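#struct-help
A.M.: can someone run this one for me? Single chain, 157 residues.
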Amino acid sequence: MRSAGLLADPAFPVNPGTKTKLKAQEDQNENRKQLIEDANSRIKTVAVQEALGFLNDAGTGFLDLRDSAELHRDGQIPGAVHVNRGMLEFALDPSTAYHNPVLSSGKRIIFYCASGGRSALAADTAQSMGVSNVAHLSGGFRGWVEAGGPRLDAKMA
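D.P.: on it. Structure tokens below:
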């Protein structure tokens, strides 16, 4: 794929369809970023250092939103419950067979993903579905690991 600078260079002509496709991709990236920014404006964000203090708190649950492959490759925060992001709305709904009881337990729920985008969207969704005590982990699992947070080895997760 050509860089944006090459797109404007007449020495490197680009098929008009390719320009349209690249513009659509740029728009989608901006839309995704805006969705995450909007979600972050409505939810609580917890820094890794603060989240470390909640690790052994019986009133707090960590919810891992990453895909199963990510979890098995990288491990997870000890004690975290796993719900794939794509199943979140079903896991939140007590009337479905996919409901996860931790989401209706009254505990503080700290959502996390790899870097923080999916967890911001998930915390916002949970709030909109009536779960009030939610937050997301700033920097996600990557930030947790970089800060030296404990994790279950992928073989144990």
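A.M.: thanks! Residues 82 and 142 are 16 Å apart (CA to CA).
D.P.: also worth noting: The beta strands are 44-46, 60-64, 81-82, 108-112, 134-137.
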